[in-house]
Design a protein that fits this description.
The chain has one domain: Thrombin, subunit H (Beta Barrel). The chain has a six-stranded antiparallel beta barrel with strand order 1-2-3-6-5-4. The protein has one helix and six strands, in the order ββββββα. The protein is 16% helix and 50% strand. The longest helix has 18 residues. With 115 residues, it is of the alpha+beta class.
């Protein structure tokens, strides 16, 4: 039997500063994006967040202009004993097509640079 990937987008490891807030809370926090794809992001934070929470993310891709703004839902959250921070998997629920395309292109270029 062939194993198929559930992932629609390629992903890459990153180290990008991210601002985020819980939808409706209005308080902005900071985190680091550590894994990125066109469909979502994994962030590392000192804050524990509830799985299922809806958040708004704001970040800049390296060597690009303009902020990426995306709404997402926490689909995974755990404490990483090695980094002593919480790791949160966020699936994008609302992102401008141009922002998603910029992420996909960034990942394509990053992959090409690593070859």
């Amino acid at each position: 039997m062939l194993k198929t990937s559930r992932r629609q987008f390629e992903r890459t490891s990153v180290d990008i500063a991210v601002s985020y807030s819980i939808e409706g809370a209005g308080v902005s926090e900071t985190a680091r994006a550590i894994d990125l794809s066109g469909g979502g992001v994994r962030i590392s934070s000192v804050k524990q967040l509830a799985q299922g929470a809806h958040i708004v993310l704001d970040f800049h891709l390296p060597k690009t202009e303009g902020a990426i703004v995306a709404h997402g839902r926490l689909v995974m959250s755990f404490f990483d004993g090695k980094s002593k921070e919480y790791s949160h998997g966020v699936a994008f629920t609302q992102i401008a097509q141009t922002h998603q395309e910029a992420i996909v292109e960034f990942i394509r270029q990053t992959g090409r640079a690593q070859l």
